[in-house]
Amino acid sequence: MSSDRRTFAIISHPDAGKTTLTEKLLLAGGAIHLAGEVRARGANRRARSDWMKIEQQRGISVTSSVMTFVRDGLTFNLLDTPGHEDFSEDTYRTLTAVDSAVMVIDAARGIEAQTRKLFEVCRLRSVPIITFINKVDREGLSPFALLDEIADKLALDVTPMNWPVGMGGTYEGLFDFGRSALFRPEQPPEQVDGLGDARLDGLVEGAQLLRDEAELALGGYGGFDEQAYRAGDQTPVFFGSALREYGVEALIDAIAAYAPPPRSQPAAPRPVLPEDPKVSGFIFKVQANMNPAHRDRIAFLRVCSGRFKRGMKLRQVQTGKTIAINSPIFFFAQDRELAETALPGDIIGIPNHGVLRVGDTLTEGETLTFTGIPNFAPEILRRVRLLDPTKTKQLRTALTDMAEEGVTQLFKPLIGSQWIVGVVGQLQLEVLISRLSAEYGVPAEFEPAPFDTARWISAEDPADLKAFMAGRGSAMAEDRDGAPVFLARDQWEVNYVAERAPEIRFSATRERA
Ligand code: G4P
């Protein structure tokens, strides 16, 4: 039986229109009725101070981490990826939980830095991508220039699925190749008999230009090849405008028709197929203090196989503990619902008190671990200085909580007592300080640490590891799991030390074993 789940994310550079498109998708899917809901959030996000306010209010950002809507008998799970580049680690892990992605590109700007980075993550996991070239209602680059740029910069085959009749001031509509239909603003679609149909001349002024361009495009780029798309080698490209709702229906239809249902997931010792009868899944995100009044925490589980039922007892493979999942939650755009059953591709929120962590595997008992959900070596390390010395315990709780969310990493130096926090980007530090005081009542400051990067270390022979660690006390620390970590001033020092200690493996990422 083929699945009716479509679990996907939208990737884009800030300002390309991800928030607007999300909102229109949810509107089209009947998931929200109030325009403006998602919008306000996008605008808030861009401004640092507002973003922090949102972060403190929490409720909004969490209910929208996953948005589920049902349309034409299909269940769409749209996973939110944080837009700011400082949160690329979180984004990376979110992309491990999707089966496909929509890449939004601003027609005036083409491929931008963040789009490219996110694309690379998708490529790493062969996540298939549908492209939406947004803002055709404004002047932009020519459709050919845009298609060529995607092909060249991303080394991806492109195939246009529709074509804009003019752009910006000359925009008249979109011609849909598959349907052989013209879509004009505020007009019903017009089905024609191919591009040669003389009726087109009566419908749009740019009919002849459309014919010329479309002929060139159809000849120059290959046609849509579902297999190539699913393998991540070809991207079907839709032109449109999220704001004006041009081409949005066509995009949803394409996700419904072509985006893959839940795929097999990499795991050790064997990959997991969605058809496997037993339930399994992994935690890709943990969000704490959604409601600062209670210290609740939601772990987001991507169901990978089996048929999950509420009340099931699942084994947390990393600890061997068994957990009864009694109140799993589904996230609809504005509501939460108790999840009675969940199928592969679904995302359920599991309230817990810090037991579940990012990277955890849950199964019905089998010893299995999903792979490729790493922690990344931090690029900024800071010592935490407590401004109120009576709050040592609270500080520890707060830092542990946030490390469990995967927002920051926490290192305990083998010598000395001050915790060191590690983050991938500067903005995370500001969020951390703000949350320490807002959510935990712990006033704190950061002090520069004599280190700025970290590597997890290991060795074939435990004696080698011990000798290495003994030789450099102050640069040694443990992460939260007690795994040994080498703290270094910079990449240069890592290289220098690594060259002289060939028996030690230095790793910039770590997966929970
Ligand atoms: P993001 O989440 O990717 O950061 O982008 P977002 O949707 O917030 O959109 C960024 C800006 O681009 C917004 O304008 C939005 O209105 C505009 N936009 C999105 N889609 C389209 C489109 O199809 N056509 C045009 N012309 N503009 C579009 P803003 O001025 O930054 O915000 P606002 O003042 O409109 O709220």
UniProtKB/TrEMBL annotation:
PROSITE patterns: G_TR_1, G_TR_2
Superkingdom assignment: Bacteria
Subcellular locations according to the entry: Cytoplasm
Keywords: Cytoplasm, GTP-binding, Nucleotide-binding, Protein biosynthesis
Binding residue positions for GTP: 12-19, 80-84, 134-137
Coiled coil: none
Family matches, as Pfam families: EF-G_D2, GTP_EFTU, RF3_C
The Tr-type G domain, residue ranges: 3-263
Reported function: Increases the formation of ribosomal termination complexes and stimulates activities of RF-1 and RF-2. It binds guanine nucleotides and has strong preference for UGA stop codons. It may interact directly with the ribosome. The stimulation of RF-1 and RF-2 is significantly reduced by GTP and GDP, but not by GMP.
Protein family: Belongs to the TRAFAC class translation factor GTPase superfamily. Classic translation factor GTPase family. PrfC subfamily.
NCBIfam families the UniProt entry points to: prfC, PRK00741.1, small_GTP
PANTHER family in UniProt: PEPTIDE CHAIN RELEASE FACTOR RF3
Identification of the protein by name: Peptide chain release factor 3
Organism: Sphingomonas morindae
Lineage: Bacteria, Pseudomonadati, Pseudomonadota, Alphaproteobacteria, Sphingomonadales
